[in-house]
């Protein structure tokens, strides 16, 4: 079984090239720097491939700051624009039309680049 940290670091580098250096260490010394380790281990090491679920949850939470990057990650994970749109459509019935409308605007701004 692959180490979760190694998997998470590799996935993070694939999805966001250039953010981490080439060495195997994660940034240290900042305020609450363990939060980044938690993200690498749990989000990227264990959950990264579940973009549809992640998008739905971020839409429902109205996590607008995170949606732009996760729309890009979803594409990197292989989701088509039609599949991403389907998540937005589906969320309108469960998270509400305002949340879906906001997600749609962010998707248009982000994916239309």
From TrEMBL:
GO terms for molecular function: peroxiredoxin activity. Residues 50-109 form the Carboxymuconolactone decarboxylase-like domain. Gene3D superfamilies: AhpD-like. Pfam families: CMD (PF02627). SUPFAM superfamilies: AhpD-like. InterPro entries: 4CMD/NDH-1_regulator, AhpD-like, CMD-like. PANTHER family: 4-CARBOXYMUCONOLACTONE DECARBOXYLASE FAMILY PROTEIN, CARBOXYMUCONOLACTONE DECARBOXYLASE-LIKE DOMAIN-CONTAINING PROTEIN. This is Carboxymuconolactone decarboxylase.
């Amino acid at each position: 079984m692959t180490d979760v940290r190694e998997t998470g670091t590799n996935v993070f580098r694939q999805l966001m090239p250039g953010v981490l250096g080439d060495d195997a260490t994660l940034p240290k010394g900042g305020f609450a720097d363990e939060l980044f380790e938690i993200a690498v281990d749990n989000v990227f090491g264990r959950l990264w491939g579940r973009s549809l679920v992640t998008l739905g949850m971020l839409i429902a939470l109205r996590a607008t700051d995170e949606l732009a990057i996760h729309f890009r990650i979803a594409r990197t994970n292989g989701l088509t624009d039609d599949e991403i749109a389907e998540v937005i459509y589906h969320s309108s019935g469960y998270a509400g039309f305002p949340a879906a409308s906001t997600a749609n605007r962010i998707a248009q701004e982000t994916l239309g680049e």
